[in-house]
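Late entry, written up from scratch paper. The run itself happened at the end of the previous shift, but nothing got recorded in the book at the time, so transcribing now.
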Amino acid sequence: MNRPVYRWTYESIVDAIPGVTFPDWLALTIQFVLFEGVMLLLAWRYDLWHAVPAGTAAIVVATAGSALMLLIGRRVRDLSMPTAYRKLLFGSSIEVVLGVIAYVALITYLLVYTPRTGAPLLESLLGTAPPIPAVFLTLLVLWDVCYRIGTAWWASVIGFWVAFRHPTEGATRRSLRRVDAFVICFALLQLVLVPFVRGYDLLVFALVGHVVAVLCVSGSAIFIRTRGSTI
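Output as recorded:
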């Protein structure tokens, strides 16, 4: 009997069109060109050029995050690991739940918290009367970023759990250490956004705290596997 193939929700969406299969490079190119092209069109239409650097940074983070998700997924599926690991990592959709939590927290911060401080972030990017299409694209890109944050959280936690509960040997151990390193890189991508939210201390703290948390958890997984290989 064939082993079930579990995939990220992102991968399922990419392959959702019946009879159409995109190679990874094409799916990533479409993602970047589509979002970046629409953003530049809106910047031209509504004179929002000052928001382009921040928008491009967010789109790059989302697209690079997609590339790392595909890389991590391929590496994990090639390993001889318990089915429970793959099912938890890919089949539980917990990364979507964590992404939704991050997104709701961000929207609450943008729409409720910052206006009360007198320095609304969305207003600084899109103006006091933001165009509806620009708001729509902004919120869509922010969801993309938050989904990647949720995925990094989940991949980090599951990596630590597997390192602690399912010791491995040889090539599998080395491959899992590389996966943990990719997860750390996945989180580090978010730091690209920090320069664009300077002055918004809570948001900076959340981004940096997210990265530090993943570094600690995935770093601990790497340490457990490295220590195990020397015993």
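The longest helix spans residues 132-165.
(Scratch paper discarded after transcription.)
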